[in-house]
Task: structure prediction
Amino acid sequence: MDPTQTEMPRKTCFLIGHPTGHSLSPTIHQAAYGALDMNWHYALMDVLEPDLDAVLAGIDGERIVGANVTIPHKQAVYERVDELSDTARAVGAVNTVYRRDGRLVGDNTDVAGFLGPLRAMGRDWSMARAVVLGAGGAARAVAHGLTRELGLAEVVVTARREAAARAIPDICAAPWEERVGVCAEADLIVNTTPVGMAPMEAASPLPDDFVFDAKQTVYDLIYAPETTRLMAAAQAAGASVIGGLPMLIGQAAAAFRIWTGRDMPLEAVNRALRQRMATGGSS
Ligand code: NAP
Result:
């Protein structure tokens, strides 16, 4: 977005966060623009909260089409948009912004991104019991998707700060110390804690002697490493496992559709991501 550039990209989207340096979003979106021969550009905007208003005002819906929002601004942007989608309102966080009829709209595509792999399994989840480990921003999106979109009858959230779990609507909260017992009873275990990613790659949110059932599905939101210690243990016991990469791509694809009206070319995106991760892009 350098005004001295002579050949300005026709349209720009960007990521608002702090820090943003290691984000995979530019790789995902640029690969999609390239594959579809679109003269668009995806930029990184490392922004501190006092500058958020100015950055959001720059989204004109014409040349600057929209933005993704990541840590730590998902709640702050939620407070600043003119309109919220039903999903963003229910989750209490915004990860995608765009302009509609002059008004700034905040949406949350993390929910669609999270649900994609579960829907792709083609099973009826409504009778399933799920346990969500962690009660931060991602857990709120996960819990909303499980209870409101997939209609699960029983979702237990267990977190170090039980008050944070209790603040999530439509779930049962359980103490962190009881996570082994509740996970043993679950059909679906979702890790939304950072335990398993750098600098905790060697750790798992469940103890090493936890006995997985082959009928269980274990979904770890962490995408680097692609297979966490939790996933490896579940896989070894014959359980189904899902990593965080499909969710990352799914939330990007949903934002891409909002901004461009087009489907993201997933094959090209997957290829670019694999290349980037193989050469050291980690988060
Ligand atoms: P967050 O708001 O900081 O929440 C993290 C949660 O994990 C909190 O409940 C926190 O508890 C808990 N936690 C942190 N360290 C822990 C530890 N050592 N032991 C037990 N619990 C711990 O973060 P978030 O935005 O929800 O993101 C969480 C994870 O999801 C990250 O790994 C992120 O990369 C991943 N994520 C992936 C995607 C994707 O597209 N794949 C999307 C969003 C997030 P306290 O409150 O006690 O600290």
Notes: Residues 71, 110, 113, 134-139, 159-161, 164, 192-195, 197, 221-223, 244, 247-248, 251 surround NAP (CB under 6 Å).
